[in-house]
Automatic annotation (TrEMBL):
This is Arabinofuranan 3-O-arabinosyltransferase. The chain crosses the membrane at residues 14-36, 95-112, 118-135, 168-190, 197-217, 255-276, 285-302, 364-383. Belongs to the glycosyltransferase 87 family. One of its GO terms (cellular component) is plasma membrane. The keyword Transferase applies. It is a multi-pass membrane protein. It comes from the Bacteria. The keyword DNA damage does not apply. GO terms for molecular function: hexosyltransferase activity. Keywords: Cell membrane, Membrane, Transferase, Transmembrane, Transmembrane helix. It is found in: Cell membrane. The lineage of its organism: Bacteria, Bacillati, Actinomycetota, Actinomycetes, Mycobacteriales.
Amino acid sequence: MLDRLSPTMDTQRIVSLILWPISIVLIVQRSVFLGVNGDRTDDFTPVYKAALAFLRHQPVYTENYNTVDPHYLYPPSGTLLMAPLGYIDPERARWLFIFVSVIALLICAYLLTRMFGYGVRSVVMPLVLFFFFSTETVAHTLIFTNFNSFVLLGELLFMMLLLARRDLWAGVPIALTLAVKPVLAPLLLLPLLNRQWRALVTAIGIPVVLTALAWPLSADPMSFVRRTVPYLGLARDYYNSSIAGNGSYLGVQPWLLYLMRIAFVLMAVFCLWFLYRYYRRTNELLWLTTSAGVLLCTSFLVSSLGQGYYSMLLFPMVMTVLMPGSVMRNWPVWLGVYLCMNFDSFSSKRWAALGRVLEYNKVTWGWSVLMFSVFCVLLFRYLDVRNEHARTPVGTSPEPERRLPTS
């Protein structure tokens, strides 16, 4: 009886049989029903209006930033890439955008599965799909019809091409995302650290070329510089889960917000140093994905704008839980993952104040717990390495793989 209950290939097959139909229905529900239905927040309409204005050579950057409605914030290069949407009527353009976003997410799930050495027929593939479409970050990306699916796809292609040492090509997918929104810009530090500088040529060059092409075609390109760029530097107090935005909404003193941001930057610096020194040569995949997660999570917290659905860009780091030595193998870090990725609502009629606090702070708390947990894991490993080094006789130097704990 115990043999029948032990993990076997049959167990994995049963789990796959359970997860595949659930995942497929979940994908349909999130895209066809929730996505098409939309919500009060609509990220697509400003993009569509900007594409239409661009094609008609009308001013694009005419937003009233005093309202809390979604604003069009893409640079001229992003407007150029979004312009083809203006050739389709608004409703069908939105449906097409949702459809292509779902396709991009399916490709991301496949690439993530393959990047960690698993096949489509393994239990990992439906597990990844189920996790993807269970999260708030994917659901709201489809419901609000945002560009984030393509950013995640660009991130994964960037990582896979870096690992394959196709440096010039690695810069292409991340460059296309940077041309629209610069959320992945911190990742450009990774090829620099790994001496893959050629990736920076295309990563920086393509957005520059697209900007040069879009600039004379735009009716008001300088309005982006004069009006939009200063607004992007402000920490707005609505729909903003960064430390500055969340603290501004709650009325926290600015000096405390600066102190918290500095603390998370220092934690990130230590994590990046430790990962670079002890993991880059021994496990490049673990180094790349974990370092990317640290950079992005820190940027979400300390920048002027961090929105909850950016959390999907942490999927590669979350996936490392399948690898020995992962920083994701502890319960506090998964509490952080739940808080920043859950699709649950904590609003309460009976405990309105408590529900409001949880609902408005869960993403900020999630990123903070995630970062602090990763920092503590790596700090304890550093202390273990230092203690072992202190006990090592002079003249010997144990290999990093032997010195580092795997859990």
